[in-house]
Specification:
alpha+beta; 2 domains; six-stranded antiparallel beta sheet; two-stranded parallel sheet; 8 strands; globular; membrane; transmembrane helix; transmembrane
Length: 375
Amino acid sequence: MPEISDDDWEKFLRESEAGTAASAPKEPSARARMVTARLREQEARGELPEGWRTGPSWRDTEARARRRRRLWTFVGIPVAAALAFVAMKPSVIPGDPFGTGSTGTTGDAAPLPLETAAPSGAPGAVDPEAPTQARPFAGSPALRWADGAAGIVTPPATAVKGFTKAQVQDLLTKTRTLLIDTNLDPATLRGERPETAAKVIDPLQKDVHKLLGPALRKADKKDDPLMLVSRFDPAEIRIAGTVVKTRGRMTVGAGKDGSAVVHADYTFVYPVVRASTPTADGDAEATRTIVRRVLDVELSDPARYRVTPGTVFIARNDMTSGNSECDRYDGWFHPSFRSDEPTGPTPSGPEEDPYDRSRELGGTGEEPCGTVSRV
């Protein structure tokens, strides 16, 4: 019987773990046990041979995830700022290049074309109307944004080095599914677990799955599901109507270390009312919470990385939120309303426009709570 190299056996073992093994090499089982035991021992010591799970070990991946969490900056809004609507004139720039929607007064405003590149600045001013339950996007640049999932459009799939067009299309589809299930699904918004998203994300990303499991039931500053999921406590808040406005873009290309990466950058505008508001009261007070999420979703070669075939890996997840109580880590967004009495300390952070999609997200996660210029 010819001698079989360790490389052949390692390949067979990799395929076996992935459930894709072809016919097994004809070699005594004692040899397989010996090679497997040696590899497991090396893996435990962090001494993996070249070509066998040469991506980051899970412990390293958890460390990277913790660093990413420190990059997720929450931009809070004080109640005093929620009381103020900025009275600015409508934009008069010909062609409305920033996608402002100058009227902000009617529900039949022409929708904006899809975003294909980062805008050069924040949306211009709109008439400072107060939102109501019947007209929750009055006075908002989001009036002309796409409705819900219609605003999440995948680009055409093309082959990326090491991955076929079909594999890239699958990555794009899974990224879109992830965004919809964690940010737009009505059940998710009222606090239920985003089951579809959980199936898409690699189970080896235990820190991420913690956000989709235990943290949904008991959140804290370290494990806050709002890092990944948008949700409002149904005992306090409900979505006004059935539409969440969406704007953003998605690109795909080659990443580091032989991966394919989808970069997704989307802003979601949630119109809300108090849970006690009668649904028939169209004039009832409404407000908005604005959430922007920037994700890098990867597809890696299972021959090089410790991954679960058929799933994706979240390599980056940056987030900001406007008009949600700052420094509260109970796993829910807590928007402020115009009629609320100012409470809490005065925020010391800078003022920012939550509709501004031209700026990069980042920071250390330790920045003080700031204010928003509009909701």
